[in-house]
Design goal:
Two copies of one chain form a homodimer. The mean pLDDT of chain A is 97. Chain A has 13 helices and ten strands. Chain A starts with a helix and ends with a helix. In chain A, helix 11 links the parallel strand 9 and strand 10. In chain A, 45% of the residues lie in helices and 16% in strands. In chain A, helix 2 packs across helix 3, helix 3 packs parallel to helix 5 and helix 6 runs parallel beside helix 7. The longest helix of chain A has 19 residues. Chain A has a single domain, classed as Alpha-Beta Barrel (TIM Barrel), CATH 3.20.20. With 295 residues, chain A is α/β, with parallel strands linked by helices. Chains A and B meet through helix 3, helix 4, helix 5, strand 3 and helix 6 of A and helix 3, helix 4, helix 5, strand 3 and helix 6 of B.
Chain lengths: 295, 295
Amino acid sequence: MHFADRLTEAMKKKNSVVCVGLDPQLSKLPAVLLDKMKGQYGATTSAAANAYLEFNKNIIDAVKDLVVAVKPQLAFYEELGHEGIRAFEETCRYAHAAGLIVIADGKRNDIGSTAEAYARGFLGKVDLFGEKKSIQEIDALTVNAYLGIDGVRPFIKVCEEEGKGIFILVKTSNPSSGDVQDRVTADEKISVAQLIGHFVESWGSDCIGESGYSCVGAVVGATYPAEAAKLRKLMPTSIFLVPGYGAQGAGAEDTKPCFDAKGLGALVVSARGIIFAEDPRAAAQAMKEELNKVR
Amino acid sequence: MHFADRLTEAMKKKNSVVCVGLDPQLSKLPAVLLDKMKGQYGATTSAAANAYLEFNKNIIDAVKDLVVAVKPQLAFYEELGHEGIRAFEETCRYAHAAGLIVIADGKRNDIGSTAEAYARGFLGKVDLFGEKKSIQEIDALTVNAYLGIDGVRPFIKVCEEEGKGIFILVKTSNPSSGDVQDRVTADEKISVAQLIGHFVESWGSDCIGESGYSCVGAVVGATYPAEAAKLRKLMPTSIFLVPGYGAQGAGAEDTKPCFDAKGLGALVVSARGIIFAEDPRAAAQAMKEELNKVR
């Protein structure tokens, strides 16, 4: 089934547009969990990775009926080397089994032949000695389009074949996102973010599902609502993945421009605000309700 | 010791500016190696990863006195999941032990707090239950600056602390690199690639080594020599990491604008052209000599 249709259906069924960022950090995990893993595996990457996995499973169990998707941030797993990647993989499988859509936040980018390897590994199938196997259980990946269409096409091809999705960085949520993204181009008189927005809309035009949305989504930060409103108009067939809510400073009202007229078409992410909350379930519930009020 | 100084010293000592891309692909590996690993581990990611590692070790042994650095492309290892990352890690350690500089090609990018995790994991030290440990043996990482300075600062901080380097994507070697990178900005009347070039030069200005080069280098493709010439002038203190030679179409002459007046300041990469050559050592030797003729 088409990625955008699966995502849209899950939003409707759960009456939720919440995505939980699974961004574990050792210094913020419960002491009892850390002590247990350190006792079992020593002060190793293996202990840390197992702590991440158990922490993630608890979060997933707590929020799975309230949220649509999880978004593990690859940086935090890669920090622990191959043991971290193992924890990432098992987290994705566990989230999938819990009925959640899994978005890997890797912001991957490279030239065509290399992007093919990323696309196969994260979203498609890898040829292992003549047998095609899925390595990961991931529904979508974030992608950086600085290299142009060559670096994005391999991902779209796999998305079409496998019912997967990508979210291309358009306007990111961080304070310095304007350094490059807000520059105005001399020919088109639009920002670089808007230029990439045009690309996103065009690149996704051949893979639009029944929901009216394509398999090529866009990352648009809630911290720049005026820009988000322009981008929403410019990309009517792209689902927005919206970071910036909560710990990064944006409120529910700021996410409003990201939604379409039906209150769909955007998935809002919170990581620290949920996973490190005293009661993650209550935090997810509160976020769900706040967003439902504005969309 | 400062990264740029280590790199420059190695170039002088070996009289070489060659970097070998370690981009293994299962379909291109020797049948005898594949049969051996498949026999031992079955048709698994473990078998493939072990094949990559043994293949890489053979390449490193063959070329280590002729080349300055190796550049494993993370996509090809990530394609095999955590087993691939294990092979990547062991490849980096083996290359380091062979006296080579190791550049991880990951083109990583994210907001500040997340970029910190990438910086710690790839280039710095990770706090594991109160003990600071290096997870990888990597000298430099490629970085995508689409998110602006927030996403780059954490890398530079670790570079300064640990004597490591980054190479920021400026003008990439692929055919569609112009989609974004060649757009001209309305205010500065320069291309987006040149804009990022200015950033690179400015961001590196506080970490210039005795060689005159900073810890912030630039990726500049050999496939666009006219653009490279402009970028060389614009970034006098940045070492260029130069893809595009060989299989991607650029010849030795095309790399010329990337070098400084002393024939230094640029490291030229070839992957497929060396590692899949019938005689990788002969291919590396030929590339070394061709480049030495023009620089």
